[in-house]
Specification:
The complex is a heterodimer. By secondary structure, chain A is of the alpha/beta class. In chain A, helix 1 packs parallel to helix 2. The two termini of chain A are 25 Å apart. The N terminus of chain A is likely disordered. The chains are: A alpha/beta, B alpha/beta.
């Protein structure tokens, strides 16, 4: 696992995973290692789970790693702002999807992911309108809620309410009133500090 | 005192019931002799069923049972190749039976004991290459099925560790089901002789079911509703996922526990989806059958 702290928020922490993510104890060990890595940082952290080399993930491991991390990210919301956690899956293949999606749905959670071809996708318990708005944020990278009501034909203030819900579910981040996609966060984190 | 347990000539998931029916009468202090001389054919379920029956016989009598070796050279050879004797040595009194060297079997998975999560890892990693060959070339399944099979194998083996609180065994073999289906099938058998579904789920679910609580209701709760002995909502996914996957493959999954059995029955079988009143047998016994895919006729 590596972490970089070039930008104040959120910091990107990349987690490499085992090829065979099977059994609960394995999942628990992987999650605890990730939590330990993240716990070193006080600010906002985006944990990137790199699935490129994961040959197999079973339902138990999907629950212990992805669903637990997503649960911890969401339930941490009442804590002080600077300790917010986000999760992004990268390198997602078709065979990873069902165990992860199923584990998240059982807990009414969702996680942002990026397929191996770069396509963004939400996994878990997500309504169509949430997915559409989230995709809008991904496509535009940064979204100001004010003009969005008109753009999407929504009642005044509705876009902000819905974006805030995505933020509450830790599917986007929020910086200075704008809602930011994780794709944008990754791009920013890879730039050298100015 | 000794008691002879007659092993059926064909030992499979159906005749296993006859075998364990004979065990019901076994009493403490009796020496059991499993007479397998006339066995002509054994399925993977029958194979580990013989281990499970021996273990239960040993637990009931307090004495390691003896076993008469099959007279059929084919059956003896199969038992050797599937590592039956190696696993039986901790259950049966085999005397001074010499360990025979044998080549690699053509089975997907020889009998493998499941005692720890490391064993589950070992099994999943070990079958990958062979599963790819069998599922793609022999059963004509698409590539993702190999991974889905690995996931299913992992979950069903973990079920032993999470719920049985006892050792279990797994094995898998592909063969031609001439009579029942006229097609190749992959058969996966997993067994333990632990607390069973009723015992495992009792603390969390028995009260809610009241007088209706039984092995059959426990199986329904776990297999159909994804209920688990844990309150954690993330638990109980494994069996649900297996049922869903086997349904996609038009396969069969049956789980026997206590005195009941529940099944996902495909259109090619006429098994009852839920049965009670079977001879009591501890733990859980799982059978999964994946039939070869049949190419759909292309309209002219």
């Amino acid at each position: 696992m590596t972490a970089s702290s070039r930008r104040p928020s959120p910091l990107v922490s990349e987690a490499s995973l085992f090829s065979y993510l099977v059994t609960r104890p394995t999942g628990r060990a992987v999650r605890m290692s990730i939590e330990k890595q993240v716990a070193r940082h006080d600010g906002e952290v985006l944990t990137v789970l790199d699935f490129r080399n994961v040959a197999v993930i079973d339902y138990s491991c999907a629950d212990e790693v992805v669903a637990e991390l997503a649960y911890l990210a969401v339930t941490r919301r009442r804590s002080a702002g600077p300790t917010r956690r986000f999760v992004l899956i990268r390198g997602l293949e078709e065979h990873h999807e069902d165990p992860i999606d199923s584990a998240l749905r059982r807990r009414a959670l969702a996680v942002a992911a990026e397929r191996s071809d770069g396509e963004p996708v939400l996994l878990g318990d997500v309504e169509d309108r949430e997915a559409r708005l989230w995709r809008h944020v991904c496509d535009h990278e940064r979204v100001d809620p004010e003009p969005l009501d008109d753009e999407l034909g929504l009642p005044a203030g509705e876009a902000r309410t819905r974006l805030e819900e995505l933020f509450r579910r830790r599917l986007v981040t929020r910086i200075a009133g704008e809602y930011i996609s994780f794709g944008r966060v990754l791009v920013d984190s890879s730039r050298p500090p100015s | 005192m000794s008691r002879v347990i007659q092993v059926p000539d064909e030992l499979n998931e159906d005749t296993f019931e006859t075998l364990i029916g004979e065990l019901v009468e076994a009493r403490e202090g009796e020496r059991l002799l499993f007479d397998a001389r006339h066995v002509r054919w054994v399925s993977p379920y029958g194979l580990i069923g013989l281990l499970a029956a021996g273990q239960v016989g040993s637990d009931r009598t307090g004495l390691a049972p003896a076993i008469e070796t099959p007279e059929s050279s084919d059956v003896r050879s199969y038992l050797d190749r599937m590592d039956f004797w190696q696993n039986a040595s901790s259950i049966y009194d085999l005397g001074a039976r010499p360990t025979r060297q044998h080549g690699r079997s053509d089975a997907l998975l020889e009998i493998t004991p499941i005692r720890s999560h490391q064993d589950v890892h070992h099994v999943v990693e070990r079958v990958r290459e062979r599963a790819a060959l069998i599922l793609e070339n022999r059963l004509h399944y698409p590539k993702p099925a190999v991974i889905q099979f690995s996931v299913m194998l992992s979950e069903v083996c973990q079920n032993i560790l999470e719920h049985a609180e006892a050792v279990g065994w797994v094995c898998a073999q592909t063969y031609y089901w001439k009579r029942r289906l006229g097609r190749d099938v992959l058969v996966l058998a997993v067994m333990d002789v632990g607390v069973g579904f009723q015992g495992s789920l009792a603390s969390e679910h028995a009260r809610r079911h009241g007088d209706r609580w039984s092995a059959a209701t426990a199986l329904e709760a776990a297999f159909l509703n994804g209920e688990s002995r844990f309150r954690d909502p993330g638990r109980g996914q494994g069996l649900q996922a297996i049922r869903k996957q086997v349904t996609k493959w038009n396969g069969e999954v049956r789980i026997r526990s206590g005195d009941a059995m529940i099944a996902r029955v495909p259109d090619w079988d006429d098994l009852s989806p839920l049965r009670g009143g079977l001879p009591f047998f501890p733990g859980a016994q799982v059978l999964i059958v994946m039939p070869a895919r049949v190419e759909e006729a292309v309209p002219a």
